[in-house]
Design brief:
Layout lengths: L18 H47 L6 E5 L2 E8 L2 H12 L7 E7 L11 E6 L4 E8 L3 H12 L5 E8 L7 H14 L3 E6 L2 E7 L3 H14 L5 E6 L9 E7 L2 E6 L1 E2 L2 H14 L8 E2 L8 H15 L2 E6 L2 E6 L5 H14 L5 E5 L14 E5 L6 E7 L2 H15 L4 E7 L7 H12 L4 E6 L3 E8 L4 H13 L4 E8 L12 H14 L16 H10 L8 E6 L6 H21 L8 E6 L10 H7 L1 E6 L17 E5 L43
Parallel strand pairs: 2-3, 5-6, 8-9, 12-13, 15-16, 18-19, 21-22, 23-24
Antiparallel strand pairs: 1-2, 4-5, 4-7, 7-8, 10-11, 10-14, 14-15, 17-18, 17-20, 20-21, 23-25, 25-26
Helix pairs in contact: 3-4, 4-5, 6-7, 7-8, 9-10, 10-11, 12-13
């Protein structure tokens, strides 16, 4: 029997015991293969992950270093994906280039978006125009079209022999609303104002200019007001103060009342003091007082006020200041005792620099001899001058005739004088001074006598009386008497048809001082009694086109502060709407409610509450409050009392939306403004 331990011969068939062993070996081999595959996969995943992390890190670092914070980096194996929104197509392309510089560009996947193109806003069109004696400068941006050519043509017409600086640029955008009328007004102002800075935009026009005189300033303002109807315009025109030689003031108290024939002051404060003394002395209405240069003493207002007061105490007469020389002629009814008392006090009170010559009136001499007299009359329509009376000799007669022809026209002078060698000393000078005075009138008469010169007539200039008084005072000398009786005729004044802003607010003040604006109790409805005052206010504002006026509403302190504020705003707007309904140009007016915040009287009494319920009209800043040649009441706020019952909140007006009432930077008008949100400011 064969040994069981003997090896199986090669080529023999295994026995039953070898099958398990072979199975085990197969399992072991399979396990080894799976293990090897798992290790290979794990190693492959680890290596791929390492590549992904490394790729993401280097690409992200490079993009962040260049400021591409909007790009996001994602990896998937060897693929690197860029996503996010690039501001522009150029930046998108640049980001891809940067990523491709640190990894193989074939591995990049572009998932970037680009922001949609934005609509570019139209630029702000504006023009600055600077004009002086040397050149005109144009600076700014205008729409494509004819605007630049129009400005160039207007400038060329003004500066044919002067340099022109054109720094205008154009843009291919449509002109905004309001641009064309604003530019039209700017061109008008350019042609009108020789020394000016004009700013034009679609929001309005701002004009700063210099005038040669107060009269020219008023003419400029009137022309701009006419051309700017309905536009937002801010005008500031400066005029130098006139040099007055001599510095003259003449005050008269007679049967016609108290008045100025001439008034001069060196400052606004001095003017107010003089006018205050005149009002106390009995003047009525508005008085003219020129603020000028050349005052002989800083105590001018003190001296003139003292003399006006003394004349008022005497009860009649005239006082004339010619620089530091004062001539006071008492009225015919003044007693010697009163004269001595008042003149003594005046001499004692006057500053040392002033010299006073005070006289009682001379008694009329009973003579039968013909008077030494020269007369001249200036006809109303023909303006023909007739000269009659006495002259000293042929030479003087020829000189007077030549002077009259030069002033009135060679074909408008008729000479019918006689020669009198016995005429008083200085007679020719008195006659010529009188003719100079007559030439300042539209029509009138002149009488020259040894003791006086009298000029009477009508003029279209508010300054005619002052000019004549200044001329006669300087020519005749201290102690000489003269009489000026000149009436101002508005129809002869070419500028009177276009009132200044100050004229307009003064007219409103006159109406508001005599009548009341009333409302139904607790309501913003104008009552029937207010129809008359609204009609009068509309008439007062006639031709006041585009004037900047604030209509301020005020209440008493009864009721809630919020309700009172809303009520005052509603009432101010009701007045504005009422004026608009009466064909008043309200484009420059604003309605502002102040509520109970600006009281003018004690709210603890019925009388005080009645005073606090009011409508005020105030001239806004940015325009001339008054011309340099005219003095008026210093307060430019007109108040119309609201005569009605205690204030109550208006139903439905609680918690209103408030807006800033201040004058806007672009000077744009507001026809229907709202109430103020901040505490109300005391009016100036």
């Amino acid at each position: 029997m064969a040994d069981l331990t003997d090896p199986i011969p090669t080529g023999s068939t295994p026995g039953p015991q070898s099958a398990p062993k072979r199975h085990s070996l197969a399992v072991l081999a399979l396990a080894a293969f799976v293990l090897a595959a798992g290790v290979a996969l794990s190693l492959s995943w680890t290596l791929a992950r390492a590549v992904e992390v490394r790729s993401s890190a280097v690409v992200t670092t490079r993009l962040l270093a260049e400021g591409y914070t909007w790009a996001k980096v994602d990896t998937d194996g060897l693929i690197v994906s860029l996503s996010g929104t690039a501001p522009t197509e150029t930046l998108r392309f640049s980001a891809l280039n940067l990523a491709g510089s640190v990894i193989d560009a074939s591995r990049l996947q572009d998932n970037l978006d680009v922001e949609p193109a934005k609509i570019i806003a139209a630029p702000r069109f504006s023009v600055e125009i600077l004009r002086n004696d040397d050149e005109v400068q144009l600076i700014g941006l205008v729409p494509d079209g004819e605007d630049k050519d129009r400005l160039a043509e207007a400038t060329k017409a003004l500066t044919e022999d002067q340099p022109q600086t054109d720094m205008l640029q154009t843009a291919a955008y449509p002109a905004p609303e309001g641009w064309k009328p604003a530019l039209d007004l700017g061109i008008v102002a350019l042609k009108l104002l020789p020394h000016s800075k004009i700013s034009v935009s679609d929001a309005g026009v701002v004009i700063n200019a210099i005038a040669a005189s107060a009269a020219e300033k008023r003419a400029f303002e009137a022309a701009i007001a006419t051309a700017s109807r309905g536009l937002s315009v801010r005008v500031t025109i400066s005029a130098p103060r006139p040099v007055l030689t001599p510095f003259t003031l003449r005050f008269v108290v007679d049967g016609d009342g108290a008045r100025f024939d001439a008034c001069s002051a060196d400052t606004e404060k001095a003017r107010d003091r003089i006018l205050s003394a005149a009002r106390i002395a009995g003047t009525q209405g508005r008085q003219t007082c020129t603020v000028g240069l050349g005052v002989p003493s800083p105590r001018w207002a003190e001296a003139t006020s003292l003399a006006i007061t003394s004349l008022a105490k005497l009860g009649g007469g005239t006082v004339t200041f010619s620089d530091a020389d004062i001539t006071l002629l008492a009225g015919s009814d003044v007693t010697q005792a009163a004269f001595d008392r008042e003149i003594g006090e005046l001499r004692s009170a006057l500053p040392d620099v002033f010299s006073l010559d005070a006289q009682m009136p001379e008694k009329a001499a009973a003579t039968v001899a013909g008077p030494v007299e020269f007369t001249a009359s200036l006809a109303v329509e023909t303006h023909r001058v007739e000269l009659r009376g006495r002259l000293t000799d042929d030479r003087v007669q020829a000189a007077v005739a030549s002077f009259a022809k030069a002033r009135f026209g060679a074909d408008k002078v008729y000479v019918a004088t006689v020669l009198d060698p016995m005429a008083p000393d200085g007679w020719p000078e008195r006659v010529l001074a009188g003719l100079q005075s007559l030439a300042k009138l539209d029509h009138g008469t002149l009488i020259v006598r040894p003791d006086t010169v009298e000029v009477a007539g009508t003029s279209g200039s508010v300054l005619a009386s002052a000019d004549i008084s200044q001329l006669l005072s300087e020519t005749l000398g201290q102690g000489k008497t003269f009489k000026v009786s000149v009436k101002y005729d508005k129809t002869l004044d070419p500028l009177a048809a276009l009132p200044t802003p100050q004229d307009c607010i003064d007219n409103v003040h006159d109406v508001a001082a005599s009548k009341k604006i009333s409302f139904d109790p607790g309501s913003a409805e104008l009552d029937a009694a207010s129809i008359g005052i609204m009609d009068a206010l509309a008439k007062a504002l006639k031709n006041c086109n585009g004037i900047k006026i604030e209509i301020g509403g005020h209440t008493d302190a009864q009721g809630s502060a919020t309700g009172n504020l809303a009520l005052s705003q509603a009432r101010a707007e009701a007045v504005l709407v009422a004026l608009q309904g009466r064909q008043v140009d309200v484009s420059g007016m604003t309605a502002v409610g102040y509520g109970e915040g600006v009281p003018v009287a004690d709210n603890g009494t019925d009388v005080g509450r009645e005073a606090n319920r009011r409508i005020e009209f105030r001239l806004l800043a940015g325009q001339t409050a008054q011309s340099d040649d005219t003095a008026t009441e210093p307060d430019t706020t007109a108040t119309a009392m609201a005569a009605n019952g205690p204030e109550q909140p208006v139903p439905g007006l609680n918690d209103p939306a408030f807006a800033d009432p201040d004058f806007p930077d672009d000077d744009s008008p507001s026809v229907a403004p709202t109430a103020v949100s901040k505490p109300p400011k005391p009016r100036p």
